[in-house]
Amino acid sequence: MPLSTPSLLSRRTLMLGGTATVGVAALGLAGCATYGGFSLVEAVRRLLQLSANRAFDRLLAPGGFWDDQFARLSLPEQFGRRGGVLEQILTGPLFKERLARAFNDMAGRAAYRAAPAVTEAVRGMGIRNALALINGRPDEATTYLRGEMSGRLIDIMLPEFGDALRMTNDPLIGQALSALAGVDVGAIANNLAAEADDAIWKSIGREEAEIRRNPRGTGDPVLERAFGGL
Q1: Cα dist. 90→42, 83, 84, 121, 216 in Å?
Q2: pTM to 2 decimals?
Q3: CB of 106 within 8 A of CB of 185?
Q4: 66: number of CA atoms within 13 Å, CB side?
Q5: What local confidence, expressed as pLDDT, does residue 130 receive?
Q6: pLDDT of residue 229
Q7: Out of 51, 109, 157, 161, which could bridge 208 as a Cys pair, Cβ 3.0 to 4.6 Å?
Q8: Distance between CA 77 and CA 188 in Å, rounded?
């Protein structure tokens, strides 16, 4: 039985560790480099956490991956092979679309498992040059965090995809996997996890760029002060 999509409240609680709002003092770090009366490290952490919250809120909503043309997963390469039974069942665009939707729903459940790891990484990562991250490209901080996590989200999501493929009750996926007799289900799961990982980071990066563009829209005084003059 597929997992139900978590509610918006449970997703928010998942990302923020049970706290709906975080005060300015709560994230203050003694001894951190400061500029204009606020901590640069704190500003970067707030930027990343809010970017991640917004991205996961969107991706974990019903149809989140599928409805976002930039996050939507395509069919794994194994399903693009032609010939035999596989060619017969994949000739129709309707079947392909329904199968792709099923994989994107799978991505939503896998992303739910990945979300807490991003929050943990934001809170615990070392930031060597916060000023450079603040003054960098629109997705500079996201790129930095992705490098720090070094494929961790793929590792987290891979078992979710693997279990979903092996234990699926979806007749479409079952029919497609049956047609791919002898295929390595683990390889399909790995392709899906890697694509979902890329979609998640791109989504976080887009949210970061939007926060930089409109820091006042966050209602966060630290972000407004850090990025209001850029």
Answers
A1: 50, 10, 10, 41, 48
A2: 0.79
A3: no
A4: 16
A5: 92
A6: 66
A7: 51
A8: 8
Name the residue among 162, 82, 83, 156 with its Cα closest to residue 114: 156
Q: C-alpha distances in angstroms, 111 versus 40, 92, 116, 167?
A: 29, 29, 9, 18
3-state SS string over the chain?
CCCCCCCHHHHHHHHHCCCCCCCCHHHCCCCCCEECCEEHHHHHHHHHHHHHHHHHHHHCCCCHHHHCCCCCCCCCHHHHCCCHHHHHHCCCHHHHHHHHHHHHHHHHHHHHHHHHHHHHHHHHCCCCCHHHHHCCCCCHHHHHHHHHHCCHHHHHHHHHHHHHHHCCCCHHHHHHHHHCCCCCHHHHHHHHHHHHHHHHHHHHHHHHHHHHHCHHHHCCHHHHHHHCCC
pLDDT of residue 77: 75
Q: What's the CA gap between 60 and 143, in Å, rounded? A: 21
**How many whole angstroms from its chain centre is CA 59?**
7
Tell me the average pLDDT across 175-196: 82
